[in-house]
Amino acid sequence: MPFTHRTTPAAEFPTVSPDIETPAQAADLSTMGRRGFLATALGGLSIAFALPDVGRVFGAKAAGGPTPQALASAYIRIGTDGTITLMFGGSEMGQGAKTGLGQILAEELMVDWRQVTVQQSPVDPIVTYITGGSSAVSGRYDNLRIAGAAARESLIAAAMLSSGDHTRANYSAASGAVTYTGGATAKSWLYKDLALAAASPAAQALVPTTLPLTDPSKFRIIGQSVQRVDIPSKTDGSAKFGIDIWFPNMVFAAIKHCPTVGGTLASTPQKPSGAIAVVPCTASDNRGLVVAGSVNAVAVVANNTWSAKNMANSLNVSWKLPASTATVDSTQLLAQAQTLLTASSGVLTAEPAPPAGSATTAAQQTGLVEPSVLATLGTPTVDATYVLPHLAHATLEVVNCTVRLTYDSTNKMVTLCEIWAPTQAANWVAGTALGLINAAPAQASNPLTAAGVVVNTTFLGGGLGRKIEQDYISQAVQVALAVKVPVKLTWSREEDMTNDNYRPMAVVNVKAKLSSGAISAWYLRNVSGSILGQRGWMAPGTVDSQAVEGAVGLPYSLGNHIVEWAPLNAGIPLGFWRSVGTSINAFAVECTIDELAQKAGLDPFVFRNSLVSDSRVKAVLAAASQMSSWRSSLPSGHAWGMAMAEWNGTIVCEVVDVSLQSGSLRVNRVACAVDCGQVINPNQVEAQMQGGIVHGLNAAMWGQITFTAGKANQKNFSNYRMIRPGEMPQITVQIVPSSASPSGTGEPGVPPIAPAIANAYSRLLNSRVRTLPFFPGATMGD
Amino acid sequence: MALLTLNVNGQTYTNVNVPDTGMPLLWLLRDILGLTGTKYGCGIEVCGACTVLVGGQAEKSCEFDVGSAVGKKIVTIEGLSPAGTQSHPVQKAWIANQVPQCGYCQSGMIMACVGAVNAGHHGTEILNEMGNLCVCGTYQRVRSAVSTL
Q1: B78 in A contact zone (CB under 8 Å)
Q2: What does the pLDDT look like over A714-725, one tens digit per residue?
Q3: Which of A25, A91, A298, A545 satisfies CB 3.0 to 4.6 Å to A61 for a cystine?
Q4: What is the C-alpha separation between B100 and A29, in angstroms, rounded?
C-alpha cells in the first residue's frame, strides 16, 4: 500500500550545531534569535523565539552520520490581564521540566516564579520536539534567558515611550513592574499595562541589540529549590496521563503482537463475541513510517480496556514466523558477540579518531593503531570481559494513545485528527498520523494538512527513552481509521515488556597495562547492536556514537589506547534506555579502573585522582570521597565501592556501602557527588540523582530481558524485579558548585551505580563480578 | 452482565453496569465510572499502582472482584480529600517532601500508605507494608514523608 512518506529525517532537520553552551555561540544565537522574534499585539506582548530542543540521541557526538538537530519554537506571552505564559512543546515525564523552565524565565523577566505559567503547547508542524538527552531544561537555558531578557527589554522600551526618556540606565525592572528613576519623582508601570505598547514597532526599535542578561551572582530564582508545579496534581489523582484520557463515546483497544520478533499475521482472526472490531495493525519504523507488508499485531476493540485486553489475550491468531530467529536469541547472540570480541574484520575504531583530513577510515585505523596498542600492552595487567543484557524500559505507565478523528459529511475523509499521547516526540506523532491518514484513497484529492493534526502531549508516566517510539501511536491511528469513533489503545504490561525497544546487550573487553602506578596502554572493544544503525539514522560503516559513548573521551590518562566497536547484528529492536551507551561502557571502564587500582595497591579514589587532570572531575572525586568518610569505619561484613562517569557534560561519582543479607546483596547507602554546571533547581537535581541511582541499581541487581527463539522471556514485573520502598538505600547527594553552563541530570545518575556496586561486591566476594545482572532470574510476588 | 450498587468516595452509584464477568474493580473505576486516578501498572498485583481502600483496607484493585466490594466503602485517590485541597495528612506529607516525579505510581503509593496507617502501623512498618513499585525511584522521599506521619 503506497503510504505517503514524510520528508527524510536528514532533510527535515535544520543542521544547526547543538552545542550552544559556549558564550560565543550564545551571542550568535542572540543575534539569530533577534531576527526570529515576532512582536505582536494580540492581547499583549508575544515573543516567539527559537529554543533548541536538543534530543541528545541524535547526537552532538554522532560520528559521520547525519546529526539532525532541531530548533523548536516557543512563545512567551505577557498578557494585558497580567498573565505570563511560557508555551512548552516538550514533555513532562517526572523531571520537573515545567518548573525549571518557569524559574529561568521568571529570573530574566524579574517576576516571582509563581507568576509564570508553563503551558503545554500543541505540536508545531514544522519543528521537532524531542524530550531526551536530559536536555529538557539545560538545553533551553541560554535561549530562554535571552528570550526572557528580550521580553523584559521590550517592556522597558514601552515604559521609555511612555515617559519620553530613552536612557536605559534610568529604568529598572523588578517584581513584574518597570520603574523609572530619571525624573523628579519615580514612576512605575505594571507589565500588564506595558504589554500592548511593548509589542509596537516604536518600542521594538528601542530594544538594545545586545540583550543584558542577569548576572548569575544576582540570581534570585535560578538555583533555588522552588516547589514543583505539577506535584499537587500528582497527589490527588487529577494529573492526566495518556492512559487517563476518556470520552463518553470512546471505545477501548488492546493489542496482541506476534510473540516472535519478525513474525507477521497469516490471516485475520475472527472477531471474538462481544468485541467491536478486530484490526490488523501494520508495523511502523521508529519515525512512524509503516513497514509495507509487515502486519505484526492485531488490535481488539471493545467497550472497556479489561474486555479488550482479555479478548486480545485469548485471541487465536495464526502467525507467519520468520525463517530464522538466530539474531533474536540471547544465547546465540552472546556466542556471536564473543566471536566478534576477537574478530579482525567488521571492527571500527572509535578512538583515536583518524587525523583531520586523513582518508584513513575507522576500520583502517583499527589496522593501524590496534597493533601498536597491543604491542605496548604486552601481557595486560587486567584483561577483563564484561557481559551486559538487554533491558526493558518498563515505564510504569504502559504505552497508550488516544485518537479522535473528525470526518467530513461523506464520513470518508478525515478533516481533523486529535491525538492524546504520553510521548517524548510530539512532532513525530503528528507525522505518523498524517502519513497513515493521507494514505487512504478518500484523502487523495484533499490530503489532511499538518494543521489538521493536533497532538496533545499528556503527562508521561515515565518516558525513559521508550516514548519517543511511534509503534503505539501508529497502531492507535490505524485502529481509529478502522472504527471511526474515538479510541484509546492501551498495551497490557505483557505486550509492553515483550515489545520494547531494548537497551542493547553488550560484551565489552578491556585490556589495560599498569606501569609504575599509571596506565601505559588501554584497549577496549565493545560488541553491541547499533541503535542508530537499526533506524537508518547513521551512515553505514561508521561508528554508532550511542554504542561507544562512555568509552571514548574519558577523563583518564590511558597512555597508548584504542577504543573499538564491533557491531552485533541483533534482530531485537533496540532503543534509547536512560543513559544509553554509557550505561554499558561505564560499567566496563569503571570496573577495570577499580581492578587496576587494586593491582596497584592504591585506594580507588587516589588512583583515579592520579589519572585525571580536569579540575571539575577532581572536585567531584574529592566531594564524593569526603561525603563517604564512613567507608573507613564500615561494620564487618560490609564493603564499599565507587565509580564515576561523565555524561553529556555532567560528572557524577557514586560510592556505595553494601553487605550480604541472608545470601542476597543489599545496598545500604550511596553517596553521590554531582557537577551539572549551573544548577536551576537543586531539589530536582537531587531527585534525578536518586532516581537515576535506583534505575541503575535495579538493572545491576536483577534487570535482564532474555530472548529464546525470537521471544522475550520476561513479561511482567513478576520476573523483572525492582526494589521496593523498604529496600531503598539511604542516598546522599551533594552538588559540587560550578559556574559551567547547565548540563542535564536525568540520565547521568545511572551509569556509575552498577560499577560502584560491582566494585563493592567484588571486594565482598574477593572475586571480580563482571556480568550483569548480579542475580539473574529474580522474581517478585505481590 | 450484572447491575451493582457501589459506594465510591462517599457517593452511591446504583445500577452500575459491569459489562464483563470477572471485571476487576480497577477497570470498573477507570473505564465505567471514569475515575482514572487509580492506575493500571501490571495487572497481577505486583506493582501496587492500582491500590484503593475497600472498607478502610488497602487493596490492589487490578484483580479485586467487584462483587466483593458491594456493601463496602470504596475510597480512591480522588476521594481522599475534597477536590483540589490535597488536605489529607498523607497528601500534605507527599507535597512537603516533594515526593512525586512522573507521578504515575503515586496514587497507589499514597493509598497504600493510608491503608497502612489505618491498620495501625507506624514509621518503617508503614514503608514495609507498602510494596509499591516506583520506577522513578522516589522511595527516599516516600520514606521521609512517611516519617512525618
Answers
A1: yes
A2: 999 999 999 999
A3: A545
A4: 35
| Domain extent for A426 | 242-321+399-490
Measured in residues, chain B has a length of 149
3-state SS assignment for residue A243: helix
Measure Cα distances from A126 to A19, A129, A457, A474 in Å: 22, 10, 17, 20
The domain spanning residue A128 has which CATH number? 3.30.365.10
Residues 6+ apart with CB under 8 A from B122: none
B61 close contact with A: CB closer than 8 A:
no
- Contact, A748 vs A674, CB < 8 A? yes
The pair phi, psi for residue A552, each rounded to 5°, is -110, 160
Residues A283 and A354 in one domain: no
How remote is the C-alpha of A199 from its chain's centroid?
36
CB contact under 8 A, B84 and A695: no
Q: How confident is residue B1, by pLDDT bands cut at 50, 70 and 90?
A: low
Give the cell for residue A9. 529525517
3-state DSSP assignment of residue A583: helix
Confidence grade of residue B2 (pLDDT, cut at 50, 70, 90): confident
Using CB atoms, which residue from A231, A239, A464 is nearest to B95?
A: A231
| B41 part of contact set with chain A, CB < 8 Å | yes
Domain boundary, last residue among A211, A233, A255: A233
- Cα distances (Å, whole numbers) of residue A742 to A100, A691, A749, A765: 12, 19, 15, 40
Residue to test with chain B: of A252, A396, A667, A730, most B Cβ within 10 A: A396
Give me A373's grid cell.
Answer: 596498542
| Shortest CA distance from A488: residue in chain B | B31
- For residue range A258-304, list pLDDT tens digits in order: 999 999 999 999 999 999 999 999 999 888 888 888 999 999 999 99
Question: Could you identify the residue written with the cell 513525530?
Answer: A428
pLDDT digits (tens, 9 = 90+) for A169-179: 999 999 999 99
Same domain, A538 and A403: no
User: Do residues A228 and A96 lie in contact, with contact meaning Cβ atoms separated by under 8 Å?
Assistant: yes
Residues A20 and A125 reside in one and the same domain = yes
Q: Are residues A368 and A351 in the same domain?
A: yes
Asked if the model's pLDDT at residue A553 lies above 70, the reply is yes
In a domain, A477, yes or no: yes
Name the CATH code of domain B89-147 (choices 3.40.630.30, 2.40.50.100, 1.10.150.120, 2.40.50.140).
1.10.150.120
Sheet arrangement for strand A251-257: A277-284, A290-302, A251-257, A487-490, A400-407, A414-421, A453-457
Q: ∠ at Cα B123 (A734, A667), nearest 5°?
A: 45
Which pLDDT score, from 0 to 100, does residue B79 have? 98
Q: What is the 3-state secondary structure (H, E, C) of A659-683?
A: EEECCEEEEEEEEEEEECCCCCCHH
Backbone angles phi, psi at A112, to 5 degrees: -70, 145
Query: Which of B27, B88, B125, B135 to probe by mutation at the A interface, max A CB count within 10 Å?
Result: B135
| CB contact set of A622 (below 8 Å; sequence gap of 6+) | A609
Chain A residues close to B60, C-beta within 8 Å: 782
User: Could you give the CA distance from residue A280 to residue A12 in angstroms, rounded to a whole number?
Assistant: 30
Kindly list the domain boundaries of chain B, sorted by start residue: 2-79, 89-147
Question: What is the count of residue pairs from A and B with beta carbons less than 8 Å apart?
Answer: 206
Per-residue pLDDT at A44:
64
Please tell me the distance from the alpha carbon of residue A18 to that of residue A34, in angstroms, as a whole number.
18
Number of H helices and E strands in chain B, helices first, is 5, 5
Contact B84 A241 (CB under 8 A): no
Label residue A433 exposed, middle or buried (CB < 10 Å: 0-12, 13-18, 19+): buried
Q: How far apart are CA A160 and CA A155, in angstroms?
A: 9
